[in-house]
Amino acid sequence: MSTRRHCLAAAAALACAIAAGGAVAQASKPPFKIGFILPMTGPFASTGKQIEAAVRLWMAQNGTVVAGRKVELLLRDDAGTADTTRRIAQEMVINDKVDVLAGFGLTPLALATAPIATQSKTPMVVTAAATSIITEQSPYIVRTSFTLPQVSVAIAEWAAKNKIRKVVTFVADYGPGLDAEKFFKSQFKLNGGEIVGEIRSPLRSPDFAPFLQRVADLKPDAVFAFLPSGQGTAFMKQFAERGLDKAGIRIIATGDVTDDDILNEMGDTAQGVVNSHHYSAAHPSPTNRKFVQAFEAANKFRPNFMAVAGYDGMRVIYKALEATKGQGGGDALLAAMKGQVFESPRGPVLIDAQTRDIVQDVYIRRVERVPAMGNQLFNVEFDVQKAVKDPAKLK
Ligand code: DHB
């Protein structure tokens, strides 16, 4: 081949390669990958079940192409074990090259993953775990669930104003339980209440009986309870079996205990339990009615607060991808997640730009049978604190 002919051929090949390359880049821009890590098996599987259902509902309603970019969902089960969460997160970042990590059903699982988010500059959207400090463990963490301090202060104020003088606190012995205990206690005491006992029960073996015997012996007006999602039924049953309700001891709680996922199984002991939380399936807004209806049609069970955080987590991710015009990128996505304001099924919410934590309304609710809703048990909202920021981050 002469030099001249070679050059022509080479130039054509180059031109072809550029043209083809352009076309290939358009057509095969890699999908935008969202890697959810959730407990799908083990004692906290209901959290995974609820969040997965909500994530799939979001995608069914909003499609799988955002700003021209195909969105792909990866979902893996960590069985609620932190070592597994960390290993899966590493695999997702290194092998799957996920654009966002999401999920985290329990505090230790979120804490185990935070360093990976920081090192790889991957946004980490926490849709469940609720210990206050989580968002401070990485500048790449954004939370759409809640914090225990955020919801524990409201019930402490309500109790003190409603003739409850002596309380025993009863919490699961780990991050969120200690947060609930601390913030309930200080607000209740500030409002003139007295703490007559503090009980911490192990997270993983929910045999509450011996602890409930101590509550009975302490004879408080009420027990204030925090237990993670899924454990409320055992607590209510054992409370009644020990005769604590008959002894006139009331239950007040965070809404984790009167979890919508299992509330109907709890029966009469749950009736009248006043609690505070950010989401009730009975929240009377048009946005929530539509959400609940679509969720139940797709899943044959009621959404709980885990589901709504998963749904909103997807919203935050989709809007961030849209804001980057489909480009993504850890820092650009994070910037677009900060400051998002929107109407959630729970009510109005804001992702606070400074703390990357959620600001939301906290409701006081009473568990009641609702005749208009099949006579089932619901958390019926009767009071609200608007736009509550995590009080642990106010200083
Ligand atoms: C956490 C888990 C829960 O199931 C819950 O209801 C609240 C907090 C947690 O581990 O952070």
Task: Summarize the structure in words.
Helix 3 packs parallel to helix 4 and helix 11 crosses helix 12. This protein has helices at residues 3-27, 45-62, 82-94, 107-120, 148-161, 175-190, 209-218, 232-241, 263-266, 286-299, 305-323, 330-337, and strands spanning 32-38, 65-66, 69-77, 100-103, 124-126, 141-143, 166-172, 194-201, 222-226, 250-254, 274-277, 341-344, 347-351, 358-370, 376-388. It has 395 residues and is α/β, with parallel strands linked by helices. It contains twelve helices and 15 strands. The chain is 42% helix and 23% strand. The strands form two sheets. Strands 7, 8, 9, 10, 11, 12, 13, 14 and 15 form a nine-stranded mixed β-sheet that branches. A six-stranded mixed β-sheet has the order 2-3-1-4-5-6, with helices on both faces. 3,4-dihydroxybenzoic acid binds next to loops.
Outline the secondary-structure elements.
Elements: H1 3-27, E1 32-38, H2 45-62, E2 65-66, E3 69-77, H3 82-94, E4 100-103, H4 107-120, E5 124-126, E6 141-143, H5 148-161, E7 166-172, H6 175-190, E8 194-201, H7 209-218, E9 222-226, H8 232-241, E10 250-254, H9 263-266, E11 274-277, H10 286-299, H11 305-323, H12 330-337, E12 341-344, E13 347-351, E14 358-370, E15 376-388
Parallel strand pairs: 1-3, 1-4, 4-5, 5-6, 7-8, 7-9, 9-10, 10-11
Antiparallel strand pairs: 2-3, 11-14, 12-13, 13-14, 14-15
Helix pairs in contact: 2-11, 3-4, 5-6, 11-12
Bound molecules: 3,4-dihydroxybenzoic acid.
Describe the structure using short key phrases:
single chain; about 400 residues; alpha/beta; nine-stranded mixed sheet; six-stranded mixed sheet; disordered N terminus; binds 3,4-dihydroxybenzoic acid
